[in-house]
């Protein structure tokens, strides 16, 4: 990535990087678990706030693609094994990979154009597309895509909420992490 | 990242909403009453006529769902999955309507009726 001189530098401290990524993965997992406790407000399968994406996207920004991917995959596998059925693991893997790639592409190609709001909506919409494509593969019936328009409309709302979270969290996390590194 | 909402952010919102509307137009559920209920459970697809009332017990991924066909309409009557969304999705009877239970990996859908041909034409 082009704008990564500080990130590459940071990556040299591998023990610290691994520890921080573990914290991010744990946070992503807890956010997934917590949002599972909120009763689904709408009768649309696959609808959720997407709070865990906050941890994944921030990890992408702070630790580069490998870091974000590690947080996302760990989150999906751990929540899948601990809290949900294998089918759901497949759906969330579809959604998770799509949103990871969308966030990474947004950061790579439009970091100077988008705010966290646009980035987060892009990622949320991609999650829904990936999730429904996985459901299409699983059920073998394109009619399942009938939920996608509603999920996409809602993704502008949920994406805005997680975008606001990232907007608030990023400057703080960035300064804490970078400061800690410089002190060594 | 930019600290303020930009015109590019607006473009992302607009693109997502336009895609949603486009899909909504393409995937509109027909208004015709269907004839059969197709049940996808554990990789197997079974068809049941809607004209005959019955109760089905479906098991997959360790969850059990009861699907009821009554008076030409189908619905999920009982479920032990975590969110029970499938129950709240109510009755389906029109061709193309469906209820999915993601935790259980069970999917029911209405098929048949004259609408299917029209669906093919619409793409």
Task: Explain how this protein is built.
The complex is a heterodimer of chains A (184) and B (123). Chain A has 184 residues and is mainly alpha-helical. Helix content of chain A is 80%, strand content 0%. The model of chain A has no long low-confidence stretch (mean pLDDT 88). Chain B is 26% helix and 36% strand. Chain B has helices at residues 7-26, 85-88, 115-122; strands at 36-41, 44-49, 54-60, 63-70, 73-79, 98-101, 106-111. The radius of gyration of chain B is 18 Å and the shape is elongated. Chain B has a single domain, classed as N-utilization substance G protein NusG, insert domain (mini-chromosome maintenance (MCM) complex, domain 2, Sandwich). In chain B, the strands form 2 sheets. Chain B has a 4-stranded antiparallel β-sheet with strand order 2-1-7-6, with no helix packed on it. In chain B, strands 3-4-5 form a 3-stranded antiparallel β-sheet. The model of chain B is unreliable at 115-123 (pLDDT under 50). Chain B is an alpha+beta fold and 123 residues long. Classes of the chains: A mainly alpha (184), B alpha+beta (123). At the A-B interface, helix 4, helix 5 and helix 6 of A face helix 1, helix 2 and strand 6 of B.
Low-confidence stretches of chain A: none
How many DSSP helices of chain B? Answer: 3
Mean pLDDT of chain A: 88
CATH architecture of chain A: Orthogonal Bundle
* Main beta-sheet annotation of chain A: none
What is the overall pLDDT average of chain B?
A: 85
Counting DSSP H or I runs of 4 or more residues, the number of helices of chain A is 6
Query: Outline of chain A, from the CA principal axes?
Result: globular
Strand content range of chain B: 35-45%
Order of helices and strands of chain B: HEEEEEHEEH
What is the total number of structural domains of chain A?
Answer: 1
Helix fraction of chain B by DSSP (H/I, runs of at least 4): 25-40%
CATH class annotation of chain B: Mainly Beta
Helix content of chain A: over 70%
Instruction: Please give the alpha-carbon distance between the first and last residues of chain B.
Output: 40 Å
Secondary-structure element string of chain A: HHHHHH
CATH class label of chain A: Mainly Alpha
Domain count of chain B, please report it.
Answer: 1
Distance between the termini of chain A: 25 Å
């Amino acid at each position: 990535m082009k704008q990564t001189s500080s990130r590459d530098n940071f990556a040299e401290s591998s023990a610290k990087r691994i520890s921080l990524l573990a914290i991010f993965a744990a946070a992503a997992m807890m956010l997934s678990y917590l949002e599972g406790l909120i009763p689904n407000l709408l009768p649309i399968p696959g609808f959720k706030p997407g709070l865990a994406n906050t941890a994944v996207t921030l990890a992408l920004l702070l630790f580069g693609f490998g870091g974000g991917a590690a947080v996302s995959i760990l989150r999906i596998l751990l929540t899948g094994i601990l809290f949900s059925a294998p089918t759901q693991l497949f759906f969330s893997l579809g959604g998770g990979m799509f949103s990871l790639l969308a966030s990474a592409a947004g950061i790579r190609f439009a970091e100077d154009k988008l705010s966290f709001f646009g980035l987060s909506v892009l990622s949320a919409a991609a999650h829904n597309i990936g999730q429904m494509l996985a459901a299409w593969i699983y059920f073998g019936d394109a009619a399942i895509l009938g939920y996608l328009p509603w999920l996409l409309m809602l993704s502008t709302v949920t994406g805005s909420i997680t975008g606001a979270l990232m907007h608030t969290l990023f400057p703080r996390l960035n300064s804490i992490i970078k400061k800690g590194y410089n002190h060594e | 990242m930019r600290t303020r909402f930009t015109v590019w952010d607006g473009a992302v919102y607009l693109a997502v909403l336009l895609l949603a509307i486009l899909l909504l137009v393409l995937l509109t559920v027909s208004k015709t009453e269907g004839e059969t209920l197709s049940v996808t459970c554990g990789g197997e697809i079974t068809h049941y006529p809607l004209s005959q009332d019955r109760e089905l017990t479906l098991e997959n991924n360790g969850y059990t769902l009861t699907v009821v066909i009554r008076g030409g309409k189908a619905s999920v009557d009982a479920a032990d999955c975590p969110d029970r969304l499938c129950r709240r999705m109510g009755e389906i009877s029109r061709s193309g309507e469906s209820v999915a239970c993601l935790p259980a990996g069970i999917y029911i859908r209405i098929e048949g009726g004259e609408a299917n041909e029209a669906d093919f034409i619409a793409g």
